[in-house]
Amino acid sequence: MRTPITNLDLSELTSLIESWGQSPFRARQIWTWTYRRLAGSTGQMINLPKPLLNRLEEETVISASSVIATSVAHDGRVRKQLIRLHDDKTVESVLMLYGRNLPRSRISVCVSTQVGCPLRCPFCATGRQGFERNLDAGEIVEQVLHFARFIQTELQRQPPFIDNIVFMGMGEPLLNYKSLWKAIGILNSPHGLGLGARNMTISTSGIVPAIKRMARESLQVGLAVSLHAPENFLRNRLVPVNRKYPLEELIPACQEYSRMTGRRVTFEYILFRNINDSVETATALAELLKTTNCHVNLIRANPTPSRVFQQTSVRRVEQFQRELNRHGINATIRESLGTDIEAGCGQLRSRYLHLERRSGLQSETRARSSE
To answer: Can 254 be counted among the known catalytic residues?
Structure first.
């Protein structure tokens, strides 16, 4: 397999180029073609010497993944892609446009860090798929580049192509720590996309040792924690990793992150009808977070076929918000985008896997019937 350029940071690419007897500044040229001009192949890098181009063609590739399915919301503000990796495994990424004037919208990209997820949160489509493997840094970066090319060609936007990146897609980012932070470094590099660390956010279900490690990183990337409950008994049910890292450990780790970085923590809170959406639960949440520098992002659950995890009413979400605000907790309600294309994490891949299995079963049935 040829080496993906996206999986090399600038120092690694420079070492590779120097080992071929080329000047190190050629590595910066390659990066400019990859991340600023968004070249689709090394053959487009026309200002490189022919011997170097030939070597690049033989031994490297810009992207080792490809987009195999796309869903677009009716208003054009959400675009979801299913991406096939080099080993035929698939992941999702989502482009979100905030604003009605699409070419001038604030652009956010949500990317995946694992194929599937090992945490098995019962309300999550990805959790039900199980865990297959971690993504490498290049596979994380390529999700962003696929959308950057779309933004450049369709929205006619010049660098910087993207305003925010959130690592909130498939998988638990902090269980793929090394590849995640390598990808962040590549995306942050001024020679690459040049996206500021403060414009990137990692969403975690609460991997306490990694949160503490993250607090000491030189790049101050934002932290979002999928909380969903104010006490352990309920959170054990909704977020099973809470049994390993209970709230008594998670909240102090978040406070440590805030203290060391000077940044507030975002707590993501999905509300499910008659499970965690009562005013009394909001009061308990306010008590839990009263000494934490934080913001609570309230999310109305997506409609799903589940008989257990059902969508709560808008009125209940607003009551929940008012109760938090009444206790001095900053809370907002996230704008829902992409519900018409099931933009929730893992839903597009679930449909693809279902069709793939169904096709496989049909092929097997036909093969048996012909015996």
So the answer is: no
